[in-house]
Amino acid sequence: MASLKALKIRINSVKSTQKITKAMKMVAAAKLRRAQEAAEAGRPYAERLERVVASLASRVTVSESSPKLLAGTGKDQVHLLVVATSDRGLAGAFNTNIARLARRRAEELIAEGKTVKFYTIGRKGRAVLNRQHRDRMAHGIEPGDLGKLSFADARGYADDLIARFEAGEFDVAHLFYSHFKSVLTQEPTEQQIIPVAVPADTRANADSGMAAVTYEPDEESILADLLPRNVAIQLYRAMRENAASEQGSKMTAMDNATRNAGDLINRLTIQYNRTRQAAITTELVEIISGAEAL
């Protein structure tokens, strides 16, 4: 049985930890509001741009003169999985869930005979994937505080990806991030960003002539400008979604940790009181026994 001194030290230690987790929860709550507002403000533009690009792409007949981000490489062999997480931990299953989704996708592609490479944005995701796919790591970026990332940062990542695509390093790029829904719910999401993905219903609408629109200049010229911007916008959206998801997950994790610390303190206090009572009882018995011996 633990001594009274050991129990007292343990109780004080857990109380100190509880203060830290409570403070971290409050910090996460403050950061969450700003991150959530930024994520929600950026969604309409990113979603609308994605639809516009898909609509334009559905009207273009792919040829040798078509932008490579539209036409692709003509192959579907090498897949680059862009896994966006964070550099920091203590955020529950936020990083692990994104990496797990990417790992499952990689296993599916490998089973189909495809070549898989990983491009990680965030130290935590790279650490998880590195355990099983060390030889498939193409590049890694440590973005720092997700809440401070700007569009210029996302544009830099996009330019690097596009340069690698044009150099023939991969045929298809998939983006993995966490879509923020609420403090309790963050949904790991996969999105194809290179080449542009055209949903079947969008192509069907274009083929049926439901939307008769004339573009000036022509669709290919517009796409040549919009496609690189779309990659950057989708990356920036993922960064904003991740920033909100990270703080929501961290807030929940720290709240659970604070509650668990409180439960542990209660159990240790009960054990301390019982041990103290037992010690007092033992001491009384010894005193009484000594008195009777006299």
Gist of the model:
The protein has 294 residues and is an alpha/beta fold.
Strands, helices and their partners?
Elements: H1 4-59, H2 68-71, E1 78-84, H3 94-111, E2 115-121, H4 123-133, E3 137-141, H5 151-166, E4 172-180, E5 186-194, H6 200-208, H7 219-293
Parallel strand pairs: 1-2, 1-4, 2-3
Antiparallel strand pairs: 4-5
Which key terms come to mind for this protein?
294 residues, alpha/beta, five-stranded mixed β-sheet, 7 helices, 5 strands, 13% strand, elongated
Helix fraction?
A: 55-70%
Give the overall form: elongated
Largest sheet: 5 strands, mixed
Average residue pLDDT: 86
Q: Give, in spatial order, the strands making up the sheet with the most strands.
A: 3-2-1-4-5
Q: Could you tell me the radius of gyration in angstroms?
A: 28 Å
Low-confidence stretches: none
- The total of helices stands at 7
General description of the model:
- The protein has a five-stranded mixed sheet, with helices on both faces.
- It is of the alpha/beta class and 294 residues long.
- The radius of gyration is 28 Å and the shape is elongated.
- Helix 1 runs parallel beside helix 6 (200-208) and helix 5 (151-166) packs across helix 7 (219-293).
- The protein starts with a helix and ends with a helix.
- The protein is built from seven helices and five strands; from the N terminus they run H-H-E-H-E-H-E-H-E-E-H-H.
